[in-house]
Description:
- The complex is a heterotrimer of chains A (103), B (798) and C (526).
- Chain A is an all-alpha fold.
- Chain A has helices spanning 6-26, 30-54, 60-90.
- Chain B is mostly helical.
- Chain B is built from 25 helices and 14 strands.
- Chain B is elongated and about 165 Å long.
- The radius of gyration of chain C is 22 Å and the shape is globular.
- The longest helix of chain C has 36 residues, at 340-375.
- Chain C has helices at residues 3-21, 29-53, 85-101, 110-129, 133-154, 159-186, 194-202, 214-231, 240-247, 250-275, 277-303, 308-328, 340-375, 386-389, 391-405, 411-426, 428-435, 437-452, 471-489, 492-521; strands spanning 62-70, 75-81, 332-333, 336-337.
- With 526 residues, chain C is mainly alpha-helical.
- Chains B and C meet through β1, α5, α6 and α24 of B and α11, α13, α16, α17 and α18 of C.
Amino acid sequence: MGEVGLSAYLMVGAVLFVCGVVCMATKRNGIGVLMGVELVLNGANVNFVAFSRYTSLGLDGQTTALFVIVLAAAEAAVALAIALNFYNNHLTIDVDRGNELQG
Amino acid sequence: MPETGDILMFLLTAAWLLPLAGFVVEIYWLCFSHRLNKGAAYCAVACIGLGFLCSFSALMYWGFDTKWAALSEPAHHGHDTAHDAGRTEGGHEHDAHAANTEHADHAEHPDALTKKYYTGTYYELARFGALRVSLDWYIDSLTLVMFTMVTFIATCIHIFAIGYMHDELTEEYEDHEVHLHNGGHFSRPGRFHRFFAYLSLFSFSMLGIVLSGNIFQVFIFWELVGLSSYLLIGFYIERKSASTAANKAFIMNRVGDFGFLIGMMILWTSFGTFQFGDRTDGAHTEAGLFTMVRGQDGKLDVSEDGKQVYLQDAHGHRAEKNGQPLTISYMLLVAAGLGVFAGSIGKSAQFPLQTWLPDAMEGPTPVSALVHSATMVAAGVYLAARFYPVFTPEVLLGIAYIGCITLFIAATIALVVTDIKRVLAYSTISQLGYMMLAIGVAGWGAALFHLVTHAFFKSLMFLCSGSVIAGCHHVQDMSRMGGLRHKMKITAYTMLVGVIAIAGLAIPGTSIGLSGFYSKDAIVASALAYSELNPGHILLFIAPLVTAGITSFYMFRLWFLTFAGAPRDAHVYDHCHENPSIMTTPLLVLAVLAAGCAWGGEGGPLYRLIADSETVPAVARVASVGAAKVILPSHQGHESDVHHVHSTAGMLALISAIIGMSLAYLIYVKKTIDANQIRKQFSGVYDFLVDKWRFDSLYEAMFVAPVHIISAWCVSFDKGVLDPILHSAASLTVLTSKWDRAFDETFVDGLVNLVGTVTYNVGNSLKVIQTGRLRQYVMWIAVGVIVLFGALVTTIPK
Amino acid sequence: MSPETLLTCIVFLPAVWAIALVLFDAKAKEAMRYWGVLGTALTFALTIQLLAQFDSSKSGIQFKFDTPWIANWNVFFSLGVDGISLPLVVLTGFVCLLSMLASWSIEKNVKGYLILFLILETGMMGVFLSLDFFLFYVFWEVMLLPMYFLIGIWGGPRREYAAIKFFLYTLAGSVLMLIAMLMFYFNSDRSFDLLELARIAGGTSAGKSHVYGMSMQVAAFIMLFIGFAIKLPSFPFHTWLPDAHVEAPTPISMILAGVLLKMGGYGIIRIAFPLCPYGAQYAAYFLAALGVFSIIYGAFAAMAQTDFKRLVAYSSVSHMGYVLLGIAVWKIVDGKTVGREYWEMGLNAAMFQMIAHGISSTGMFFMVGVLYDRVHHRDINKFGGIAQVMPHYAGLAAVIFFAGLGLPGLCGFVGEVFSVLACWNFSPLLAIISASGVILTAGYILWTMQRVYLGPEYKGPHPEALVEMNSREMAIGYTLVAMAILFGVLPHLLFDPMHGSIQALTESLASSYEKLYGAIQTSQLP
């Protein structure tokens, strides 16, 4: 078994990303969609860290990953608040019911 | 001691202005007083009576001042040309009496007896540089005679009118000639005051004409007598016929005045003055019209080629301006004379403007007597006589023919008229024609002589007819009268005096007759002398001679129909009565004067007084230099042309008159000849005469109708041409602005709107993508990313 | 009072009075009317004071003063009076007072009416007194607007049509005048001073030898003339007049006929002739012919009218023709004025005719108005017999109509006859034609009087309303009659103040033309 290379990390990141997107696209539950978002973000984070490790970028990748984590936490807080409100208004968190912004 | 001229001026001015004062008082009275008192009448009579006293004293004063030189036998200075040169250089004085050598003091005091006229200025109306328009007075013996005559007759007529207009003294005057639309008779308050106010206004205006010192002033009063005549003819304003007659009179007169105005323009532009006499202004003497035309010797100063007339100054020389002699073209002088005479035609109802006078009989009878026979209509003759020095022989010829035509036409119409006043009206026209004829044939004195005698006998006859009308309760048709002399003795016999006077009857062989005999005699003699000298114009003698017979016929016809024979209408006859003495006294007074005023004929005082004023003594024959080759006869002294033929002419005229009278007697009294028979025999002529020679319908067709047509054209030009031009300009503007609006609304606005619409439509069509479904968006994002990557991968070159 | 204050007061006192009217309660009609009468009476008194201070022996402009107004453009507030404007100023004061007294029949929005009326008076006074072309133009326009509203609001049934017609006509005229004004302005070193412009035209201005070119003079004269001829009105610019008169209320008709028309004649005498002597003599024959044609045309048109007011309006056209005729009789042979005295007579006659027409025509409109106020119609054929029911009125009306007819002893005679007499020297043909006007005038006036006043009874509508004039109407009627007689008997009262100025005008124009003619002969003129 050889050295675990960059492409392996990228592969994991890509799988995570695709899983997240699929999750966002398919889940009707708002929380599920949020989870998909987390997956997408973390897929990206994996890539940042991996590029940070295998290229000459230094700590920039890690730093950005940390920012993304913080951002994701904040985003989760806001999104959950929205979901709660959405539930209060619609007694459901089915995102298909939230189509009032349609043109 | 004031100057003679000033005293005369003062007296005549008083006589002139008193009626004006009377007018003002009467108008005031009319507005604010009780209707039933006679105050206005007494006021008017007092004013005009005082006026007569003033005029008469002026005449007397003038007579004594000149020691009655005018009445003495005129010397034969016609053939004594040496005296003509002896005129004074003063300009103010004419020296026609230079020949009166019997006045011993003449040599020492050349001015004392030689003043022919007095003139002066009341006040200036306007002054433009050297041009000057003023109100002047001009007094000579003619002025004095006219003043005395007018005021005297006016006084008589005023007194007569007090009686005649008595029934106007009421609050409720019922006019039976006017029918209201509800079928009743018209009734109105009486107009006694108004009548006398108008009479006073007339007297004032008439005296103004006589006193006028310039032609412009004559024109002013000319119009004012026209106004008074208008007011008096239209006195019964509710009668349509009266107001129409008044309009007709005024407008016909204006037609004449149109010519008058043209004459004045020519004079004004050529001479620069309107003044009759010379005016002395300090040392400087300015020549008047008469001097400018005639110079000191009474002859026209015509240039060699006969085309120019040299104007004269006051000192017997040719007038000059800037070194150039002043001239007027001969034709222009003729035109000026004809123009002024046109005014006379209108006022004196001469052919072709004669038709207004018969209609003017709509006025009350005293008016007809005063205004339309004795004074105003004679003003035309007066003007022609006054202006005689300016008339060239051509103008005189025209005047003669106009007079000749008029006297014949009017006399023939008078033959068939049955309205008593209209007979007199036509006879007035005819007699005025005689006067004009006389002026035309150089019988200046004869014309004015006839003017005065005519004034007396015609006013007498009109008043008599008024007396008949009042006595018969406003019946004017002679065919309903007859035999009235039994009931109205005074009226009938005073009328007879008038009739004999106008007919010119005399005792054959003695030359003693009433006034008309002498004056008509003088006219016919002048006409005969003229036609002997100018055989081509024999008509000018024949017409008056024949008409003398016609005159005599229709006047006696009038008298016989009215007063003689048996009553034809018993009702009229039974109710007829003689009038009170306030009406008959004036008749008697006038009858005396109508009979005797011309006493002495052409040697008598009246003629001498008048002839004294002749500014251009036509003593010698004058041959015309202009287009018309005529010779004017001489007529003073025993060897003159007129004197030679005088007895012949008198005889012929008398025979003519006697024939006329006898015919009337045979037809209307003896009835040996049946009037109806003649009428049937000559029915065409008769109808033509009854239609007054069809002048009225001719004028209606020639003037009245075209005027209305042209005025309708003018209105339709305004409505049909000028207004449409304006309107189409306006609608063109409106049309343009509509186009402008359309352009703005479709093109400019359309472009802006298009941008908006397109944007909106695009947005609208894109909004379907915006589904609001979260999952769909995510899918699109994913698909988009894949597509982008795909594109990236495929397009980026390796 | 110093002359400057006097002139300024005459112009602006009515405007001040109008402003004060704003303070009145709109319901206090009587109070406002008396206030208006007071204002016009005071103005009239001031004009009389001006007349008293005026020295008629001098020929030039008197009491002239200039105050810079728009200094950048060389515009001055410049007023003054001479023998030509003085009679018109007094006439304006007089007619305004009488029309104000005749305004009692106005019931609708009295306040607005009076304010406009007084502003109108300011405009008219300003036109007659201003000596600066620009100022003249401004006042000309100031007078226009109130008139528009007075006709358009207080008029008869077709008031809007009449008001717009009046407005457009006059405006067209003033546009032409504006162009001419600018032509002079830019050809004269930027001056609006009428006297200076006239001096330049006459070649007597100090330091300026150049004169306006021939074609420019002709063009400017034609434009000025059309502007003034519309106001006069002369054929063919007269059709606004009958409509305006018929629709305007009686007092406004009185002002329109009495004063407004005179501005046309005044403008020609004051501006058109002195500023373009060449153009004036170039067009003189045409002007005179137009005047004569207007006389005849107006008389004919009047004869065919059935509306009483329209008839009087056409009689105005006819009468104002004499004004034009009198002004234009300037005969020139080889550069020399021939018979200058006759021209002087014509100009005097024109001025006299303007004043006389101001009296007689005002009177005629007033007399028509008195009838209209009672029976509310103006159809001549429905009248008749008025003299039976209103004898006093009929007597006064007869005098006024005879004044219009040109009867001697009344004011209409002198102007008419003098202008006709003066015309022979200029052109015998025109003189003869114009003289025939006396027949036509007599025709239509007598015929009208017969149909309206004579006859046994009145058969038209509202016979019960025909009551004798009240004391206010009598006062107006008697005043007009008195003036008509006064000027008819003593015309020199009017000629005396005018005489010097007109003589000076004719002399200066004659000499200007002689100089111009010399310049033309030696081709010095562009």
